[in-house]
Design goal:
heterodimer, A: about 475 residues, mainly alpha, Formate dehydrogenase/DMSO reductase fold, about 65% helix, B: about 400 residues, 18 helices
Amino acid sequence: MSQNLTYIPEPELVKGNHTFGSITRLVGDIVETPAPKWWYIAFAISNALLGLLLAMIAYLFYEGTGIWGLNNPVGWGWAIVNFVWWVGIGHAGTLISAILFLFRQGWRTAINRFAEAMTIFAVMCALIFPGIHVGRIWVIYWVFPLPNQMQMWPNFNSPLLWDVFAVGTYFTVSLLFWYVGLVPDFATLRDRVKSKWGKIAYGVAALGWTGGNRQWQNYEKSYMILAGIATPLVLSVHTIVSFDFAVSIVPGWHTTIFPPYFVAGAVFSGFAMVMTLMLITRKLYGLQDIMTINHIEKMNIIILVTGNIVGFAYIMEFFIAWYGGVEYEKAAFINRAMGPYAWAYWIMFLCNVISPQFFWSKRMRTSIVASFILSIVVNIGMWFERFVITVTSLAQDFLPSSWGYYSPTYVDVLTYVGTFGLFFTFFLLFLRFLPMIAIAEVKMVLPQANPHNYDEDGNEFKKIAEK
Amino acid sequence: MHHAKITDNLTYPEHENTHKLFFGIAILGAIASILGYFINPEQFYFSYLTSFTFYASIALGCLFFVMVHHITRSEYGVVLRRIPETYASFIYIFAILFIPILIGVETLYLWTDEELLATDKLIAGKSPYLNIPFFIARNVLYFTVWSYMGYKLYKNSVAMDKSGDWGLDTAQRKIAGPGLFIFGFTLAFASFDWMMSLDPPWFSTMFGVYYFAMTFQVFFAVVILTVLFLHKKGLLTNTIRIPHISDLSRMLFGFTVFYAYIAFSQFFLIYYANIPEETLWFYHRLEGNWENFTYLLLIGRFVVPFLILLPAASKNNMKLVGIVSAWIVIVHFIELHWIVMPTLHHYGMEFSWIDIATLLGIGGLFMGMFFRQFRKENMVSNNDPRLEASLNKH
């Protein structure tokens, strides 16, 4: 079997014989030249959607949560589904920037800036939902344990409170991590932009970076420490999100595999989102040399792996629901697959378990069209996963007399649609004003950055390709 | 093609009889175990199962690492890959070693008790899965799959040493991809069969992941110890250097945290929801002096190694890394003991000399097989496409 196979060497991370200078130009020029027309159109649409979100929130504040589709057995609906979905989207950014950094994966440099930005905006979208879902919005600060004369405290035993801390910490560290990585690139832009205000703005953000040896040493150290802190944080966030469900005794929610399963699902959907956005951006801005097919393939492999972990968790849940022999647990799972929400369950199963299997084939992994379609399919699937978990378990609980069916109202739908407005407004601003690729880091993975031209005997190295 | 230079001797010295030493231990252990069987068969079976899961986890951790290595095209791992490859090349011995467990299946597993099944509806309900023929069939499947993968990955790698055919690298990747997929499921169900079903009413969806987390943590400890042993003999000292070992230590550190995360999550969710059919398992492990071991695991398997390995400097301190690794191997055994034994000794740990006997018996065979195989071939895959990068690691 092996005789017919040829060795496939690791492709170069940056294609097209780039130099340090040409990388700077490629990325820097996007920020320094006027925005293309499509950008204004996209920005206008995003702004309109953002307006819609604000209008829906205003209506919610005025009228109360009764305008959502929640009913008596189903007290958690789209709001938590959207919250978990958006937080999950954010996880890819931290995985790429922190975990792949710790594993020394050089290919992350092409997409890390981009994915980190996405993380921050996705977490912002996520935070809206727990922020607005309370009936008395004027006392939302009660989610924080603030000393007060009434001795009123949030329930410290509740994972919902831990969520406040976990997501808050995660957001802060992600922002810091992103900013630290941006500092050398801010300095590059400061030195390049022509406009006076641009010089001042980038100059302030660059914190006096000159690229000296000492600065790089401190930079690398702080980057490493932040990566080390961000790694357990990213696991803890979705773990605690999974605790929101799993600490309860609701059938279908209480199962021990939830923490790693939620984290894998989050990375799965997050990578899919990075893929969707990256495929559009690289085309529109002509960044195919940096975000190569090789990167797309690697990301698809991660989508395949995490998709299979999610599939593994589904199967474990189903098996143990039977094996455990608990009446209610069995009923909950049969209900999922065959009950009133079976349509949602099978959409989820098809999108999350079946669709990534296409990526076993190298042709599919390296096909841009397939990657684009499947990345969207995966995100639909992951939204439905949260819907299935949240709603099916609540709609048919222990007491058949209180069973119900949950449908969202138009406000639920438009609020969710509106969060895309928020996300893309920020995302487009990011594309316009910040270097969307980590310029300094991409240079570090260029062959020029690692000149080892002679072996121990003093013979000149030849490229492996010439073997 | 240029060669990176391996300046070390590539083969394990012929005059070294390490494998014979271990085979000697195996024979002594086997005799003691047989003696133990006649004195106290119940204790023997449980001790045997503990030792079996202990060594199986090491071999399986090695198999997993080799597959991940190929999938991720790891560079640091090239120079040390032959060690896990060799450990994983003879998983078939575990199929043979499983036979005593099959003989003792009625002593070990409550779900084989017909009288109990007649009265206990809960356990009887599981009999479509928990019955002896299916149990045997599943285990045959596990060992067949693992043995094949381990053997094939080893053979391909050794073939590349000789032929220098880099196409084999692609062949390895083609095994490793589907291999990891199969590995995940088989390991999870094996852990259900071997350990979770000892307490038939109990269940945890996380259990497979939990066994995996333990396995992969101890894997790094075992490889580090093997490398340090070779270094002590003056072997491969210029090939597997401190940067490689400190990378292994980083992984050991990382997967110590991962283990703690998985083990704690499993405990915590069961503790918090407090449903009787789930909590009983932990309840038994908080009874008598089992409670002390529960805390020992928390502190010994996570807190202490975490604090020691956290500073960058300690990952370059070979002595310290060696001590921590040895300690983790010991705690790994204690944890498996803590999982298996409360089925037999409900009210506290009663450590028996038979535990030692089975540990030495299987361990002697396992390590003997390792060194027997290890001395036959090169200790480093010297024609690997990424050897250069691995040797130049700094």
